[in-house]
Amino acid sequence: MQTREINVLVLAYLGDGIYENYIRRFLIEKGIANVNDLQKESINYVSAKGQAAFLNKMLDNNFLSEEEITIVKRARNYKTTSHPKNCDIVTYKYATGLESLIGYLELENKKERIDEIMNFILGE
């Protein structure tokens, strides 16, 4: 099966786990040693609001390739009516776009590009 044919929500499912792992490692390497503090700090990165903001920043800075933008748009435009209570549907769809992109890049074995995206997000 071609990666482009995989349901974007399946890509987002994979991307979410990878993204969260990067964030957890980053915060631990930052020296945060208390689990409650780790959880509080991670919300800035893993919330739909945070993810949508990072995606918009990448789009505003022309950081993504046309291929990557296509994946993001596919996810953003996917027909869904459900979303978390703590954010609006547009924010949720942008967050899903970022997660889908990371899942897509993982399946395409483009780990260096995932590193570049995460370094952009983490300000490194």
Description:
With 124 residues, the chain is mostly helical. The chain has one domain (3-122): Ribonuclease iii, N-terminal Endonuclease Domain, Chain A (Orthogonal Bundle), CATH 1.10.1520. The chain has helices at 8-29, 35-46, 48-60, 66-76, 89-107, 111-122. Helix 1 (8-29) packs across helix 2, helix 1 (8-29) packs across helix 5 and helix 2 (35-46) packs across helix 3 (48-60). The chain starts with 7 loop residues before the first helix and ends with a helix.
Explain the layout of strands and helices.
Blueprint (H helix, E strand, L loop, with lengths): L7 H22 L5 H12 L1 H13 L5 H11 L12 H19 L3 H12 L2
Main sheet makeup: none
The helix-strand sequence is HHHHHH
In the CATH hierarchy, what is the architecture at level 2?
A: Orthogonal Bundle
CATH class: Mainly Alpha
And the CATH topology? Ribonuclease iii, N-terminal Endonuclease Domain, Chain A
